[in-house]
Each structure stands twice: as C-alpha cells, then as structure tokens.
Amino acid sequence: MPKISISEEKVSGGNRIDFKDGSITLFIRLHFYDKKFHEGSISISTEDDEIILSGDSKTINTIKTLLTRRDNLAEIAWSVLQNEYRTLEKLEDKVERLQNASISEYSQNLLRNILYIKKNLFHIHSDYIRIRNIVENAIDDGYYQEEMHRILRDINEMIDIVEYLIEASTTAIQLMQNTLTAKMNEIMKILTVIATIMMPLGLIASIYGMNFKQMPELYWSYGYYYALSLMLAISILMLAYFKIKKII
Asked: Is 87 exposed, middle or buried (0-12, 13-18, 19+ CB in 10 A)?
C-alpha cells in the first residue's frame, strides 16, 4: 500500500486530470450543502510510491472519514466521491420539503428557494458530467480499470439522482403555480358571486332613482323600507341558491 500524505492547501479549479513527468494528478470539485451550498476542490497526485491528497482544511477534515480505500489514486478518488451521496441525500430532503410547501403556499421567498436549489443542481450535474468524461477517458487509456468502472457506476447513479431532483424541483414550481391559480380562481368566484348579487340590487336602485311622477312608491310612506326589504330578500334568495348549487 502506498504512503498517503495529506496537504492542507487551497486547490483551485476542479474536475480534470493532468499528466506530467510520469505522475498523475486528479482534480475533483466536491459539493456540500448545509442550508447553503459551498464547494471544495481537492487534488490527488501520485509521486513515486506516495499519494498526496491536497485541499483546504475544511474540505480535508470533511472527507478524512471517507478514505476507506487507499491502495491507489483511483480508490482514493472513489472514497472521496462518496461525499456526494451525503450532499445528494440532504438535497433530496430539501426538495421534498419544498414540494410539500408548494402544495399549499405561494410566495416569492419559496420561489427563490426552489430556484436557488435548481440552479445549484444544474451546476452539480455539469460537474458530474465532467467527472464521467474524465473517468471514461481513463478507462479508454487503460488506467485503473476495475476502480474506474466502480467510479463510473457511482457517477452515473449520482447523475440520475441529480436529474430526478431537477425534475422534482420543476414539479415544485408547477405545484406552486397550480396553488396560485386555485387561489385566484377562488377569489374570482367570490367576486363573481358578489357582482351577481349586486346586479339586481343596482337595477332596483336605478328604477326607483328615475323619479317619475307616476311611480306610486315614491309617495308611499313605507316605500324606502319596501325597497330595502326587497333588496335584502333578493340577496338572501340568491345566496341560498348559490349555497344549494354549492357555488359558495
């Protein structure tokens, strides 16, 4: 088993493989999620009988517990990539909660949260595609065949999970739009009922507002109360009708 050295230093870039003077350096961008997204790039390089794992202290401390396979560069890469399953599990839980919220709620804050998750899922998906390309090229070139096939299997599974989560986040947006549409329809129904009730009341008011001399109710001492009672009776009858027809 080769010697493993860990160097805590910032690594820029990610998802590429370099060959130089007989040594191999693999750069991988890892993703983390804890209420917010953050990333950490690491490099795994081979020098003689030594494998050097480099990355910032926060990223290194996170992935130390994942280093179960240490025989070669590819097995270390496979171990490190298991971190992505942790991240995807958290994202799956987050997307599920957003879906549940979108069934009964529509708000700008909820929409921003869904779009934030979806944007980062697209970014993760793009990174996974790059890693898959690197692995497929390594397999074609004959590097670490067994280990690279294992990584390829896991990367394909991760890509499937991310694509499912992207689709689920799109569904959450659609559910929220359906919720908004249902609420708007409910509001429009109430306004329509109010407008329908007001139409005959407006008709009665306009008739008695014409002030023709041959309108006996104008000189009737109870004419005012008669008109109000008529309006009230029509309103009650119409409300009862809407209730019976289950419109309201």
From this structure: middle
